[in-house]
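Lest this sound abstract, we let one protein speak, letters for residues, whole numbers for local backbone shapes, and leave readers to judge:
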Amino acid sequence: MIEAPVIREFYNTFGKSPSFFIQVPGRVNLIGEHTDYNGFPVLPISIPYYITAAGSPRRDHTMNIRNTDSRYDESSFILSSSIPPARNGHWSNYVRAASQALADFSGGSLTGADVLFSGSIPGSAGLSSSSALVIASALSILAANNLNVDILELAELMAEGEHYVGTQGGGMDQAICLLGCKDHAVKIDFFPLRYAHVPFPADHSIVVAHSLIRAAKTENALLLYNRRPAECRLATALLNTILALEIPLQRLGDLPGKCADITESFVKSIFDRDSYSLEDIAKIIEEQPESITQRYLMTRNGIPMPVPPDGFLIQQRALHVFSEAERVEKTCKALMENDTETFGSLMNDSHTSCDTLYGISTPELNTLVSVMRSFGASGARLTGAGFGGCAVALVRDDSIEQVIGGIRKEYYDGYIRKTHPELRNADNFREIIFAVKPSSGASTVVL
């Protein structure tokens, strides 16, 4: 597990040997996209691609961080009750996010650390490299301070802590980085966080292929991403008013009954417009537009989220969330019965919903998913937040070469070359297309 080159480079960088080594896997979400922050379950796996950290404690409160990738410059900051962010998009903000969360949690001074990070998870690919970095940072601080935190508590703490970087997502990524199990998917439920292992079919693998469209974390990209949680918060507010619930819902997943009971006709009867303006919502819930903005549309930096030009697409978002939650339950049942045909069909339905209802796919991802299916995948869908990144496919082990060969020919050498000639195909295809089986979660080794 310990990577000798990282250990040697740590010594060359800091002039001493590390005292701990940490390995945190990336993840593939099999199904359950954008359900976690709505209080519904997800079904991810950990994958054998990692963020690693070699480190040792310091005698002060400084986090002194480096990266083996020269594209990421060095950074230092003080562990305190108020850790200032680096510039927008800087990699150290994920380390700072974990640091701030642990500083708040500990309620006292924390010892700093010299830490060297490295990684094999493709970036901006929807494989949770960012959250893996957050978890690796947290485990580094805990190791430097000889502290232990319950694994579920740590997952919830880091899910909240990652909001430091400006995203408003849920807790799936942080949880699966910690809870991954070899040869199993992990069904993760939220509020409170809990999990169960679900067997993955032994004769199948997941083929992961990068669309070559980077799922960016720029300010505009964050607005695109954060719009969906905001629309779900607005949907919850409308439900509370329209259904006159005595106990208000905190999120869509709190609606009584099973997700299978929440039919399309019910959703359309509640949200009877294709698009809602801020004034429409204000009239229904009997609040001023300014109040709604303050309660549901504020970003972390205190700036109100703009009203989308096409309005708030609340009906479509709710339809996706409720149907996707039902697909997670059906997929767990299919896996328990080793029913890969049903599993694949549910993956296909999930992608269609992510594309047409949640609006997070792209033409490239749609093409890639189609190619995967045409060359023998049992099912295929985008994975991660969307807007680029990777697609994943359920593939029999004896068909992996056929599917990967078809993707290389039809997608990378065909579609991408024609539509995006500016995107260079990687010489090493193993960096953008590979097959995986579920792996174990994060680990810490004291050296």
Observations:
- The mean pLDDT is 93.
- The first helix runs from residue 4 to 14.
